[in-house]
Write the structure tokens for this entry.
Amino acid sequence: VLETKDLCKSYYLGNDAIQVLFDVNLCVRKGDFSAIMGPSGSGKSTLLNILGCLDTPTSGEYLLNGLPVKTLSQSRLADIRNREIGFVFQNFNLLPKLDVFSNVELPLIYGNVSKKERHALVEESLKSLGLWERRHHRPNEISGGQKQRAAIARALVKKPCIILADEPTGNLDSVTTHEILELFKELNARGNTILVITHESEVAGTTNKVFHIRDGRLYHD
Amino acid sequence: VLETKDLCKSYYLGNDAIQVLFDVNLCVRKGDFSAIMGPSGSGKSTLLNILGCLDTPTSGEYLLNGLPVKTLSQSRLADIRNREIGFVFQNFNLLPKLDVFSNVELPLIYGNVSKKERHALVEESLKSLGLWERRHHRPNEISGGQKQRAAIARALVKKPCIILADEPTGNLDSVTTHEILELFKELNARGNTILVITHESEVAGTTNKVFHIRDGRLYHD
Ligand SMILES: Nc1ncnc2c1ncn2[C@@H]1O[C@H](COP(=O)(O)OP(=O)(O)OP(=O)(O)O)[C@@H](O)[C@H]1O
Ligand SMILES: Nc1ncnc2c1ncn2[C@@H]1O[C@H](COP(=O)(O)OP(=O)(O)OP(=O)(O)O)[C@@H](O)[C@H]1O
Ligand SMILES: [Mg+2]
Ligand SMILES: [Mg+2]
């Protein structure tokens, strides 16, 4: 369902080009529960951003559900990002002026969901992540791990079929990490496709397949 | 060197008071290398911010090097924060408009350090954290783990005798985590006092003493 062919990515800073991904060939099938591990700075977030249609490759192909993403219009891409993919950011990306409830509700505002239904979905999402008591707090009024859980709640609120999570447990204690993994396993059991970047072997051990990235190159276990 | 007596902290949101620390009695001696562990939301960062003179308790005492911190003037506190304590923030707190080099140099600009000496100290700090090649990048042009390492580099650049680190390895792979721990052990061997908040047992295992916080209460192992 997610397939890349010889994917390359370079960043351009002033006159310099920094190549960070080299000929990445990744294949994630529908219903897979996979992990990507690798050293800090090796290119994991860069790859996940391309898979989430948040960035474009410099060369190579990315096919999502068989469609070459570079042929899709901006509005079609936005549609895919909003409806089919739930993305958990490494740095959370919560909006500072909105409280936790509104942050998690945001993806639903763009769809055609009634207020009553939005509120039911947000409540379900927040309660599954232990954040209901903090729903009226703003991001700077909650702990680091609570921010991380709010980012997960927001990614899951639309029940997307593809979940891309960038280091979703880095700020969590082992009990809470275990709860998040149980939630992911349950979502996977219901047919959702999950790809997690992690550096924790306990998290990778829960998945069915582990890819490794070193210096921008992907290796299968 | 860091001592709290019946420390309590409450946050006030609108008309509500949320108490997050209850009668915390912590004692850290000069040269200790200690860890604080506990569930997400239990009060760890709140406690560390008070120890780093970035926040004040609601009641109770905090003595730093024997001095009751609440009797100190704003300028004396700023002086202590700048000269004696190196603080690694859970969310990094890098300035987005400055490149990595300038972010790490910032604590030295407020002292009376010559440009030549500042640059030597920044170079040493960046090289010890594997960031020299990224010194001209800005925070949004580096990876999550590189931001975390930049936050550590900035905290250490003035060679402070007290290092307070809030989950300094949450975004790092195991090899890089190990390198950070080796660096901390070396600093501790030279007499620096280090207190680390962590949820990784590998990190806590490197320290000599582990405290636990649950629901705002501190327990000794
Ligand atoms: N400014 C604030 N206003 C109100 N409540 C707050 C504020 N900051 C933190 N809190 C609450 O205080 C509690 C303790 O927060 P703290 O950041 O100390 O937790 P923590 O132990 O560091 O958690 P984590 O492991 O997730 O980083 C949390 O329940 C949080 O929601
Ligand atoms: N906007 C940018 N401009 C230039 N270089 C960048 C940019 N963003 C990232 N990089 C560089 O690209 C490389 C890969 O970054 P990426 O964020 O994908 O790493 P990562 O594997 O996710 O690391 P981590 O585990 O630390 O999060 C890094 O060396 C980083 O410095
Ligand atoms: Mg990353
Ligand atoms: Mg914290």
